[in-house]
Description:
By secondary structure, the protein is mostly beta strands. 4% of the residues lie in helices and 56% in strands.
Amino acid sequence: MHGRAETVGTRANRLRRKQHHKNFKNALAVLLCFAPFLLLINGCAGLASSATPKQSQSSTPGSFQVAPAAVNFGKVTVGKSSSQSVAVTNTGSSALNITQTTFSNAQFTASGMSMPMAVSAGQAGNFSVSVNPTSAGNLTGTLTVQGDGGSSPVVVNLSATAVAPQPQITLSGSTVDFGSVGVSSQGNASVIVTNAGGADLTISVITVSGAGFSVSGIATPKTLSSGQSATLAVAFRPTVSGSVTGSISITSNDPAIPTANISLAGNGSTAPIGQLSAAPSVVSLGNVGTGASATQQIILSNTGNAAVHISAISITGAGFTVTGLTAPATVNASQTVTLTVQFAPSAAGSVSGTLTITSDANQSPLKIAWSATGVQSGLSVSPASFNFGSIVDGQTKSQTFTVTNTGASTLTIAQISLTGSGYSVSGLATPVNVAAGQSTSFSATFAPASAGTLNGSISLVSNAPNSPATVSLSGIGVAATVSMSASPASVSFGSINAGSSNSQSVTFTNVGNSSVTISQISMNAKDVTTNGIATPVTLGVGQKAAMTLTFKPTSSETVSGNVTVVNSQGSSTVIPISASGVQPAISVTPSSVSFGSISVGSSNTQTMKVTNSGTGVLTISQISVAGSGFSSSGATLPISLNAGQSSNFNLQFAPSSAGAASGSASLVSNAPGSPAVISLSGTGTAASQTLSFSTSSVSFGNVNDGSSASQSVTVTNVGNSNVTISQISSSGTGFALSGAGTPVTLSSTQIFTFGVLFNPVSAGSVTGSVIVTSNASGSPKTIALSGTGVTTTAHSVSLTWSASTGTISGYNVYRSTSTGSGYILVNGGLVGGLAYTDTSVQSGTTYYYVTTAVDSSGNESSYSNEAQAIIP
C-alpha cells in the first residue's frame, strides 16, 4: 500500500508540472479528486503527511510528514512518565520550519525540540512525545504539528492506558552460585531487592531451601517505598562435601510476581579452600560535599579453611580510594582485614565504582560495589544589588540581605567585607555554616556624611563556587533641609459663649528632608491655651505632631492674636488666631405678676415673654415655681434662644384656699445673674355660685289657637365660681323650650339665654313653669308661665277715601298698631278705586290706617288723615 501512495503522489506532481496557468483550475480539480484517496492510504502506511498543491510555477508550498501517525504508549503507571520518539520529515523541495506543536490533552507533552525547528528538504528531525497520566483510565488526545512555507498542519493521534501505581519487585540477580566452599567454612553473597514500582512494596515472607544455605539482612515484614532498595545477605556453610542446590522465595504484594525466586548452588569441599567475603558487600556513602570527604570501613574475612593469597586490588570510580590492604597480601583462614573506603569528590555529581580483589580464593575476584554523590554548596544573595536612593545627610537607611545555600552541602561563609564611604554591615558573624536549603541574613546600612553619589560593595568569601560573591551598593547623599508646615495655617474660633469653651487642632508636619525639633511654643491670644505638644519634640521627615488650641472666654470680648512655634534650627511658624466671646442676657416680661382675686377652685393664667437681650446663645435649663397655688406650663426645656430671640411660657394661679398668696418663678440659664426671679401674688376668695334670672315669670297674654309666641329668659352667673346648669325643663300644656340644651357651664359673669314658647291648641287660660337645675345656691330655680289661648274669628276693615284732585295712577293703603308712626303697606299693588278692605287683621287689636296717592312717575303723596279701627 505504501508503493501505491508514492505512485499517486508522483502522478499528481506530473499533472501539476504539465499545466500552465490557464489550465490551473482543471489540474486543481484532478488533485482534489485524488486527495481523499491519498490521505486514506497514507494512514494505512502509518505515516501522517502535509502536502499543499503547487500554486504556480514560481512558488512551491512546503510539505512534511510525521511518523508514526499514531502513538500508543500502552500501559503507563499514574505519576510515571513514558516517552516515544516522533520523526518529522520534510517531503518538500525546500527547507521549512516546524513552528508549533499543540496537544489537545495536557497529560501529553513534547520535548527535545526548540521552536522554530528547521528541517531541510528531504531531511528529518526527531523529538519526544511523553505521557504522564494523573489518574487511572484510558487517555486519548491529539498532537498537532504546524509548519511554515504554506504547509498544512499534521495531526497525530495519541493514546495510553493509565494504570494505578503498583509495587514491582526487582532483584539484582536470580541465581547465586557459591562454587566450592570448604566444609564448615562459609561463602557469602548478596542480592539487592529493589521496588521499581510506584506503590509501597511489602515483603511478607522470605524462605530458604537447601542444606547449608541461609539469609539475613531483611527482617519481614519489610516495606520498601518506590525506588527504595534493601540488601539480602546470602550465606553458604556446607557441613558435608558434595554439590548442594537450593532456592530463596521472596513473597510480596507485587501483583505481577507475588513470589520471586532465586536459585542457589554450591559445592561442599573437604579440600583446603580460601573463601573471601566482605561486609558490607555494597557501600553507599551518600552525599559528600566537594572539598570534603567521607569514609566507611569494609571488613574482609577469610571464611575458608585455607589461606587466601591476594594478587591484585583495583578500584574504579573518580574520587574513591581504599586503604588498609596492599597487594600482594595473604589472609589466613578465619583472619579479618579492615579496609577503609574514602570518597573525596572534586566536582558535583553521582559517582559509582567497584573495588575488585583478585586472589586464589573461591569465586575470585571478589567485587564490592560502591556509590556516592559529590555535592557542593551554592551561595545566593537576595537582593543581588541594592540602591538606597536619596538619603539626607545625617539620616540612615538599612536593607536586609538574605544569603541562601542553593547547593546540596553545607555552605561555610568565612568572611564578609565591605567597601564604600557611608556604608556599614552588621548581623553576620563569620565564620558561619549554612545547611543545604537554609538561609541566613545580614544588614547593610547607608549613612551618608556628605552630598553626592556614593557606591560600595559587600564581599562574601565562602566554600561555594565562584567565591567571593559580591553585592553592589549605591546611594545618594542629599544635603539636609529643614521645613515645617501647619494645618490649618490660621485658626478662627467664631463666637463662643462666655464660660464655655471650644477647641481646634493644628497639625505640624515636617516637610523638609531632615529631622526638626520643636523647642518652644508661645501664646499671644487672650483666653486661648495650648496643649498636646510637650517641648522639645523631634519630628522625622514626614512626621506629624498635633497641638490643641482651646478658647474659653470669660466675658463678651473680641480676641485677635497668634501662637508661635519655634524650632531648634532657628525658624518659627506663626499661626494667627481670632475669636469672639459672647454672653447671653435674659429679660422677662412682665417682671412680676399679680393675679388679683381668684375664687378657690378657679384659676387665672398669665403669659410670660422671655427675651435674649445679650449677644450669645441663651439656654434656659430650668423653670421652677414656689408658692401655694402657683405653677408654670408651656415651656419645653431646655430652651435655646439666639440673640434677640424670644419665647413664651405660662404662669398660673389656682388657689386652693381663701386668702392672700405670694410666690416666685425662677428661670435658671447661662445668663449672668441666673436665676431670673419673677414675683407672684394673688388672693384666693371663697367660692360663690349664684345665678341671676332676668324674670321670675313669663306671661304670654292672648295667643290665637294654632299660632305661637315666644319670650326669652337670660341667666347670669353673678358668683365668683363656675356654675354648671345640669337641666332645664318645662311643664304646662302648650309650653316648650328652645336653646336650652344642657349641661352648660357658666364662668363668673357669663350669661346664658334660652327661649320659652307658647303654642295653645285650644281656647282658655294655661299655666306652667320652667325649672332650671344647677350647682348654684337656691337651685332649682322655678319660672312661672301663663298664657291664654283664644279662638280665631275672621275680621276685616273696610276703608274709603276721597279722590285726589291731581292726575294719579292709584293709591297705597298703610296701617300701624300705634298711632302716628310705624305704618306698613298692606296692599299688594296700587288700588285703582277709592275703597279697600283689609282682611288680615287680628282679634283684640287696634289698627290705624292712612292712604297716599301715586302718579304715573311713581311719585307718592304724603299720608292722608289717620282712621282708627278697633277689632273686637
